[in-house]
Amino acid sequence: MAGAVGLVYPPSCVACRAATSEAQGLCARCWAGLGLIERPYCERLGTPFEVDLGPGLVSPAAIADPPVFARARAACRFDGTARELVHRLKYGDRTELALMLGRMMAQAGRELTAEADLVVPVPLHRARLWTRRFNQAAALAAIIARRSELPHAPLALARVRRTRQQVGLTRAQRAENLQGAFRVLPAMRPVVEGRRILLVDDVLTTGSTANAASRALLRGGASAVDVLTFARVVTEA
């Protein structure tokens, strides 16, 4: 049956639609366009270092402005193929991409999932969820939770205030825009209290969203919060 389906619908690259040997995969050209993030990187922010100076290093950015979350990890840089995949998942109704992206995230974040008690996605406000029809962070979180055999709590964190789009805002404006946007509702406190949370989103940009969501989880009783995204913006020094 699978062979017949392959003849009618031959497998293609999920990014560019070129022919591939397997379904739900990338062609060689698009795979080469993925800027995978591997060690050495900052142990707090997950930003890659060009030179390996030994284990446990923290970047100057993490020292100067420590994040609210404990650690952040991402599978790849937010450029090239990764940017295309995120945009297709987020705005192109390509919900099937969550499977591949979630698998890559689970692999990249295996040290985080090994210590996590609960997987929680960054929520959308109900108005934005209505227009977009699905929350890409929740779709990714479900895949990661399943592969890591961790409980998934998509409602543990609520977005209680609608914020304007973050695109085009400065770091300070992003932080101000997100003040009071997230909350652990009283009914969810028993789910969160005392647990190390793995917070999941598609992209980490300045860290404003991750910080705001992590702060709300910690106020809701979480013992610690780690952040896992598919991609992250990396600014070259």
Which overall shape is indicated by the principal axes computed on the Cα atoms?
Answer: globular
- Number of E-state strands: 6
Order of helices and strands: HHHEHHHEHHEHEHEHE
Distance N to C terminus = 52 Å
Percent range of helical residues: 25-40%
In round numbers, the mean pLDDT is 89
Tally the helices: 11
Derived from helix and strand composition plus strand pairing, the structural class reads alpha/beta
Rg, Å, rounded: 18 Å
Biggest sheet features: 4 strands, parallel
Taken as a percent bin, the fraction of beta residues is: 5-15%
Main features:
237 residues; alpha/beta; 4-stranded parallel sheet; two-stranded antiparallel ribbon; 6 strands; globular; disordered N terminus
Topology:
Layout: H1 2-8, H2 28-32, H3 60-64, E1 71-77, H4 80-91, H5 97-108, H6 110-113, E2 118-121, H7 126-132, H8 136-148, E3 158-159, H9 171-177, E4 182-183, H10 189-192, E5 196-204, H11 208-219, E6 224-232
Parallel strand pairs: 1-6, 2-5, 5-6
Antiparallel strand pairs: 3-4
How is this structure best described in words?
The longest helix has 13 residues, at 136-148. The radius of gyration is 18 Å and the shape is globular. A 4-stranded parallel β-sheet has the order 1-6-5-2. The chain has a two-stranded antiparallel sheet with strand order 3-4. It is built from 11 helices and 6 strands. It has helices at residues 2-8, 28-32, 60-64, 80-91, 97-108, 110-113, 126-132, 136-148, 171-177, 189-192, 208-219; strands spanning 71-77, 118-121, 158-159, 182-183, 196-204, 224-232. By secondary structure, it is α/β, with parallel strands linked by helices. Strand 5, helix 11 and strand 6 (224-232) form a beta-alpha-beta unit. The chain starts with a helix and ends in a 5-residue tail after the last strand. Helix 5 (97-108) packs across helix 8 (136-148).
